[in-house]
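Intended use. Records such as the Beta-xylosidase entry shown here are meant for training and evaluating sequence-to-structure methods. They are not intended to support clinical decisions.
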Amino acid sequence: MRKINSLLPVITLVMAFLMSHTAMAQAQAAKNPIIHADVPDMSMVRVGDTYYMSSTTMHMSPGVPIMKSKDLVNWELINYAYDRLGEVDAINMENGKNAYGAGSWASCLRYHEGMYYVSTFSSTTGKTYIFTTDDLENGPWESHSFSPSYHDHTLFFDDGKIYLIWGGGKLSMVEVKEDLSGVKPGTERVLIENATAPSGPDVMLPAEGSQLFKVDGNYYLFNISWPQGGMRTVIVHRADQINGPYEGRVMLQDKGVAQGGLIDTPDGTWYAYLFRDYGAVGRIPYLVPVQWQDGWPVLGAAGKVPDQLDLPANKSLIPGIVASDDFDRKKKDRDLPLVWQWNHNPDPEHWSVRKRKGFLRLTTARVDKTLVDAKNTLTQRTIGPYCEGIIKMDVSDMKDGDFAGLALLQKLYGQVGVKAVNGEKVLVMVNADAGEPEEIERIPFHANTVYLKATGDFTERKDEANFYYSLDGKDWKPIGSTLHMKYTLPHFMGYRFGLFNYATKSPGGHVDFDFFHITDTRR
């Protein structure tokens, strides 16, 4: 016993060292999700030691964000495939129409013989799009479009031919013309009659989200299905020639992590990139290790999505995915950093970061009823598990009926801002989480500048937001009620911070935003 007692200090030191070493190793390792923000429908390629990824932002403009990484974990926005998808009423928010939950979906990113290809489709315009460039970061892009709109397609180059595979449940394939101007007549065929079959007979979402890969001479087609009473499921079909026949298997059912494809590292390690529906913050990306067994990609660790990955640690999503902005532009600077997207196609005549140095000016150009009707709302993603956005705003030149401020934008939105009412100004919080916008609180306001704050708590899908105001940026007071955020299919997007100004009586007023600051820590 004395011997054991004499060894206790040594044992304690060893245990402390091991625990410290383990904690350090865990801190230096990547964790799932790799991005705790709305980055759905990913498509990836690796060129040398650099990874590129495209994603979906639907009705937002510019669209089809392109991201870059050196380690598969830490990503930064580097470009968009297009500035404006089309000039139709829905995307322009004209004549009472909008493109919420529509626009462009499920892009496919490919690299072939020195050229990058980004394809997508739009039910809003009824077209399929293929954007090409030899410089993914700087462009220029060449745009190709044709009808019809091929739903959830994958673009694929093989043996001198270009293919599209698309559909839901029944998957079809067609050849694309070499000049990308359309499809070759007579080449359409059914590739897989019932791609959903491996996940069972009773499904609420048939197999869709096709992405095709070729590894060691075999073809692997990834799809997602959703069995009734189950979860989003990864299905993989394999064939030794592109035309089939294909054999299908369920390759992952865990946490609803599904839809994506394959990516390898320069040292030959394989991963599947997939995403998960995660409440109000949106659809968030995961990486899942892949082992090859008998010619099949086996996803996960013992069939499960790991919390930790043998990859470099996640850094902050600031400033690569979201970022603060003081709106101070030098002559050579782009007007808006890539983290910003307009809610729909913007009206370029009624916003500026040049008219007043160091400010974003939003000028009203028409009369709108609510936030979701308004043009020129400027947005950034929210990020989890917690984030807050702060603005400072000059409201000196509002007109009667104008409403301007900071929002958390989705169908069931919340907003805080300044309203001009009968020659006076008031601070107002509006909560729409019950389905219709309701003014919760109104406070008299007599200053020309105001600070506004919105917080989003997405911890374990808590999905609550609160709003605050301040006259000096230090002493914050709550306003209104807690917004119970809900991901809704009509908008099909995670909540976004939105800077807004719209007229409810007559256009022509403007507000100036001094800055937008975003943090991922509680103050």
